[in-house]
Design a protein that fits this description.
The chain is α+β, with helices and mostly antiparallel strands. It is built from 28 helices and 38 strands. The strands form 11 sheets. Strands 8, 9, 10, 11, 12, 13 and 17 form a 7-stranded mixed sheet that branches. The protein has a 4-stranded parallel sheet with strand order 2-1-27-28, with helices on one face. Strands 4-3-7-18 form a 4-stranded antiparallel sheet. It binds one RNA strand through helix 7, helix 10, strand 18, strand 19 and helix 17.
Length: 869
RNA sequence: GCCCGAGUGGCGGAAUGGUAGACGCAGGGGAUUCAAAAUCCUCCGCCGCAAGGCGUGCGAGUUCGACUCUCGCCUCGGGCACCA
């Protein structure tokens, strides 16, 4: 008996698609286009189930839209720059370039058997000089347009390895390799002026109707627009040039509860003091012995240092407040100085209690009104409170009203002015690393910082040094110590100059790849005609972990590209719809090296809690996001080899709602495979019946005009059209798991159906079409064996017949006091009065009423009845 | 610490404010088979012999009716600007 053989049919149909160029994106002005994009992968060397899930979802959308008549663009590329390549070179030798391109070849080979409807002719990697050369050209245009500038910024510095560390490389305040306490260090770096766009990036979120609310909310909070008061406190006995300290506050209404002034350790006053005061210098140095991440600063114990300086309260010059240097105040936000109001801010309160500073209530709750103890009173700004130290508003007012009044009062009295500030900072793009896009500028002794000439692009990364491969075992930036690469001539004056040795943040690479896919081989960054046709991305799909940075940077970049003429106006917001898929999680296996640092292991290297190679026991850390660095990734190649790509695809779609996390298990894979085998056998059985009945030709004349079948045929057709409707709705709303469930249910219906052969043939063919976006190879095979014309991939999507979707009778559940107790079958359109009569005649209802009348009787037509007794 | 999510049977999960547990996994029973595999049929939230009662993380609230809406907690996950 014939069997389902995925290994054979998957190869067969992939070859057929290849020969047909089915997935080649066609710039066809006559058809509407649809651009579906999944976030491109980092080429770690192996695909994992997260990739399979991500790309299968995109593939379902791409194939579905294609069947619906759209000209689809569905490309794939590689986010190929970044630290792991350099780390690999350090750990295992070799070159980042060879490692990366080797990984890309491996991953492409693992991905192709999935049968994704990708136009591979558009593939590129961000580390291709052709790509990053165009990126350099855009950088120069953005520099000319004033979108890029240089300023000082703080980095994590490893004093032993003499190298800059990423936040990820700082573990508990120490360098991951050296173990040395990390220091903060200032470097001159390049920045994109994203904060100039803060307001626009915020406002435009409202127009992104097909983005998840939570992502927009996260971006709103990240941009952090606030209205507040900027004002100065005058100082007493401060050093020269510091007779005033500017502070920014969002709660000027609490000014009468001020208790101290806090300044950042990086504030100019702190820096001035530390020059002459060893005690200040020591405290500031200690503050700087910490990483740069906000998380680390916020989690650190809140500490302050009393400078001994005082400031005068603006409303009462006799009232003096102490000035503290505090480790939790960021120089990057506001003015780097705050006033503390302990009664209405928990952090200020903790600080005040710790250093014995006064706590003064400025308002109390309407009911009660006990003074603040160890919990600050911080009601929502919209809640009315009773003010005990108001200075320009009513005794009872909300925080909002008080803030507005306070700003007005301060402005009228010459104490500062209302300002709007954003939390969003400019985007620092300089990285002191090798494996990234070189920043195309030159440092000339006479001309200073000079943009490289466009004709010299791309500025390529050097592969070796003096004929020998670059040695990555030495910490630090190989470009910086390369013997010749830095040497160049000034594009302006022609004399000897030095090349910039910093490379770009890899977020730059991923901020415009979607645009490059529309014309991947163009001699300019984009081709405006192609961008005009293909942009925007109609459906973008990726992980929630990119909700803020990648997506915000991309939104900024689209604007910057438009300003510099690389994208049309309509691409200002590049992603029309966003879907954030959940992550695939897995256990983490960890051992420790001699120095006690964690070493992670791939699941396939672990068996029964021990390393296969050495037998060493591993520590099992509970399921977490699959990540390259933790090595808790599962290799889907094994699944594809034993069950086929369709099984892998069907399984990742079936088990969990797409936006939710899923823990990968092997248990369901066999079930998925069993089901696909069953579907194939049902179709094959129908094909064999057809053969016995005279072959396909005998059924070709059937169809619309054919004699109506019996009751069984009608029942099957009703179920089929309901399934068409449900599966289509599922795909359109990203409810792939629901679509899969409906297809399971319909398979059962079809298997048990006593309908005529033509009806079952039709049902099997339509079912194949409905399955085609998910299990495309199986669908093609069934389509072919049942006599379908051409490729199912090119067949139009089936439409449900509305007449077959409505049922004549419905079952109404009867609730008594909200609990289901009975049910009645009634004609679909029976009026409520008739229904009521039937309900009151129902045994369960009569029993519950016990002869009395119901208190209330609610009839929701066609849905439910509730009797309140 | 701050911002954003998620919690439903043994497990993954379904459910425009309207029958909680669709569909699948695991498990039980049966058919077929010399036997097994494969396949097919069937049962399956918890307590209870039953009648019935209890059930969507916990506690309140709104409603004729709450997994769904509101408020307060708990737990887990994501992000926090140099991981990608």
């Amino acid at each position: 008996m014939a069997r389902y053989t995925p290994a054979e049919i998957e190869r067969k149909w992939q070859d057929a698609w290849e020969a047909d160029a089915t997935f080649r994106a066609c710039h066809d002005p006559a058809r509407p286009k649809y651009y579906v994009l999944e976030m491109f992968p980092y080429p770690s060397g192996r695909i994992h189930m997260g990739h399979v899930r991500n790309y299968t979802m995109g593939d379902v959308v791409a194939r579905f839209k294609s069947s619906c008549g759209f000209s689809v663009l569905h490309p794939m590329g590689w986010d190929a720059f970044g630290m792991p390549a350099e780390n690999a070179a350090m750990e295992r030798g070799g070159h980042p370039k060879d490692w990366t391109y080797g990984n890309i070849a491996d991953m492409r080979a693992q991905m192709k058997p999935l049968g994704l409807s990708i136009d591979w002719s558009r593939e590129f990697a961000t580390c291709d000089p052709d790509y990053y050369g165009q990126q350099q050209a855009m950088f120069l245009d953005m520099l000319a347009a004033g979108l890029v500038y240089r300023k000082n910024a703080t980095v994590n510095w490893d004093p032993v390895d003499m190298t800059v560390l990423a936040n990820e490389q700082v573990i508990e305040g120490k360098g991951w390799r050296s173990g040395a306490p990390v220091e903060r260090r200032d470097l001159t770096q390049w920045f994109f002026r994203i904060s100039d766009f803060a307001d626009e990036l915020l406002e435009a979120l409202d127009g992104l109707e097909n983005w998840p609310e939570k992502v927009k909310l996260m971006q709103r909070n990240w941009i952090g627009k606030s209205r507040g008061l900027q004002m100065a406190f005058s100082t007493v006995d401060a050093p020269e040039g510091f007779d005033r300290i500017e502070v920014y506050t969002t709660r000027p209404d609490t000014l009468m509860g001020a208790s101290f002034l806090g300044i950042s350790p990086d504030h100019p006053l702190a820096r001035a003091l530390e020059r002459h005061r060893p005690d200040v210098a020591e405290f500031c140095a200690e503050c700087r012995r910490m990483g740069t991440s906000e998380e680390e600063l916020e989690k650190a114990e809140k500490r302050g240092f009393d400078t001994g300086l005082k400031v005068r309260h603006p409303f009462d010059t006799a009232w003096e407040l102490p000035v503290y240097i505090a480790n939790f105040i960021l120089m990057d936000y506001g003015t780097g100085a705050i006033f503390g109001c302990p009664a209405h801010d928990q952090r200020d309160l903790d600080f005040a209690r710790k250093y014995g500073l006064p706590v003064t209530d400025t308002f109390v709750a309407l009911d009660g009104g006990e003074p603040v103890g160890d919990v600050a009173f911080v009601p929502p700004k919209t809640e009315p409170v009773r003010w005990v130290r108001a200075f320009a508003w009513d005794e009872v007012a909300t925080g909002e009203q008080a803030v507005d009044a306070a700003i007005r009062f301060c402005e009228e009295n010459g104490v500062g002015h209302g300002v709007t500030k954003f939390r969003l900072r400019d985007w620092g793009l300089s990285r002191q690393r090798y494996w990234g896009c070189p920043i195309p500028v030159v440092h000339c002794p006479d001309c200073g910082v000079v943009p490289e000439a466009k004709e010299n692009l791309p500025i390529e990364l050097p592969y070796d040094e003096d004929g020998t491969p670059i040695d990555f075992s030495i910490p630090g930036n190989p470009l910086d110590r390369h013997p010749t690469w830095r040497n160049c001539t000034c594009p302006k004056c022609g004399q000897a100059a030095r090349r910039e040795t910093d490379t770009m943040d890899t977020f730059v690479d991923s901020s415009w790849y979607y645009a490059r896919f529309t014309a991947p081989h163009a001699a300019t960054p984009t081709d405006l005609a192609e961008a005009e046709y293909w942009m925007n991305v109609d459906q973008y799909i990726g992980g929630i972990e990119h909700a803020i940075l990648h997506l915000l940077y991309s939104r900024f970049f689209a604007r910057a590209m438009q300003i510099t003429g690389h994208l049309p106006e309509k691409a200002r917001e590049p992603f029309d719809a966003l879907f954030t898929q959940g992550m695939v999680t897995h256990e983490i296996y960890q051992t420790r090296d001699a120095a006690g640092r964690p070493v992670y292991h791939l699941p396939e290297d672990v068996e029964g809690g021990k390393l296969k190679a050495t037998g060493e026991a591993v520590e099992i850390i509970p399921s977490a996001k699959m990540s390259k660095s933790k090595k808790n990734v599962v290799d889907p190649v094994n699944i594809i080899e034993s069950f086929g790509a369709d099984t892998a695809r069907w399984f990742v779609l079936s088990d969990s709602p797409p936006e939710r996390d899923v823990e990968w298990t092997s248990a369901g894979a066999e079930a998925a495979h069993r089901h696909l085998g069953r579907v194939w056998r049902i179709a094959n059985g129908i094909a064999e019946e057809m053969d016995q009945g005279g072959g396909i030709a005998a059924y070709e004349s059937e169809g619309e005009g054919a004699a109506p079948g019996g009751e069984d045929d009608l029942t099957l057709r009703r179920a089929l059209h309901k399934t068409i409707h449900d599966v289509t709705m599922g795909i359109e709303s990203f409810g792939f798991n629901s679509s899969v469930a409906k297809l399971y249910a319909f398979t059962n219906t079809l298997a048990k159906s006593a309908a005529s052969l033509p009806a079952r043939r039709e049902a099997a063919m339509v079912m194949a079409q409905l399955m085609a976006p998910m299990t495309p190879h199986l669908a093609e095979d069934i389509w072919a064996m049942l006599g379908g014309q051409g490729l199912i991939a090119r067949a139009p999507w089936p439409k449900p017949d509305p007449a077959l979707l409505v049922e004549d009778t419905v079952t109404l559940p009867i609730q008594i006091n909200g609990k289901r107790r009975s049910e009645i079958a009634v004609p679909r359109d029976m009026d409520a009065a008739e229904v009521e009569k039937l309900v009151l005649a129902d045994d369960a209802v009569r029993k519950a009423l016990d002869g009395g009348a119901p208190k209330k009787l609610i009839v929701v037509p066609g849905r439910i009845v509730n009797v309140v007794v």
